[in-house]
Amino acid sequence: MALDHGAASAENGPVIPFTVEEDSEGKRSVTRFDAGTLEASVATAHDHAGESEAARIALCFDGFVTLDDGRFDAVWVIAQDRSEEQALTFYQRYSTAHSAQGYTVIGNAGYGGENDPIFGTDEA
C-alpha cells in the first residue's frame, strides 16, 4: 500500500516522506513529514517511526535506484513488522512528469534487501 501510494504521489512531483502505521487490528494511518529538505524530512519520519506503537510500519520517500541498466527516480519503502528483527526495503522506479515520456511507473516493484530495524532498538 505504501509503495503504491508513494508511486502515485510521484506523479505530482517529489514525494513528501510519509509513514503508514498499522495496528494489530489492521487499522492504518498515514502521516506526512515536511521538514524543509528531503534529508530532514526522512530523518523526522524515521524518528517518528522508531517511537511508534504500531504492529507494522512503512516509511516511504523519494530517491534513486541504480541498476545494471542505469539510474532511475524511485520511490523507496522501508517496512517492518514488529515481530521481525530487520526491516525490508522495496522500490518502484518511475519517470518524472518532466521527462520525455512524462510520468509513468517503470516495471514492477523491486526488492532492495534487508535494512536496519525501524522500531526502537530497545524493542525485542
In brief:
By secondary structure, the protein is α+β, with helices and mostly antiparallel strands.
Descriptive account of the structure:
- With 124 residues, this protein is of the alpha+beta class.
- It has helices spanning 2-9, 38-50, and strands spanning 18-22, 28-32, 56-67, 70-81, 87-95, 104-115.
- The protein contains two helices and six strands; from the N terminus they run H-E-E-H-E-E-E-E.
- It has a six-stranded antiparallel sheet.
- It is globular and about 45 Å long.
- The relative contact order is 0.20.
How many domains? The number is: 1
Structure classification: alpha+beta
Total number of beta strands: 6
What general outline do the C-alpha atoms trace?
A: globular
Treating each run of at least 4 consecutive H or I residues as one helix, how many helices?
2
Percent range for β-strand residues: 35-45%
Output the strand order for the largest sheet. 2-1-3-4-5-6
Rounded average pLDDT: 92
In angstroms, what separates the terminal alpha carbons? 26 Å
- Unreliable stretches (pLDDT < 50, length at least 5) are none
Q: How big is the Rg?
A: 15 Å
- What is the share of helical residues? 10-25%
Q: Major β-sheet, in short?
A: 6 strands, antiparallel
Order of helices and strands: HEEHEEEE
SSE inventory with pairings:
Layout: H1 2-9, E1 18-22, E2 28-32, H2 38-50, E3 56-67, E4 70-81, E5 87-95, E6 104-115
Antiparallel strand pairs: 1-2, 1-3, 3-4, 4-5, 5-6
Which properties best describe this structure?
124 residues, alpha+beta, 6-stranded antiparallel sheet, 2 helices, globular
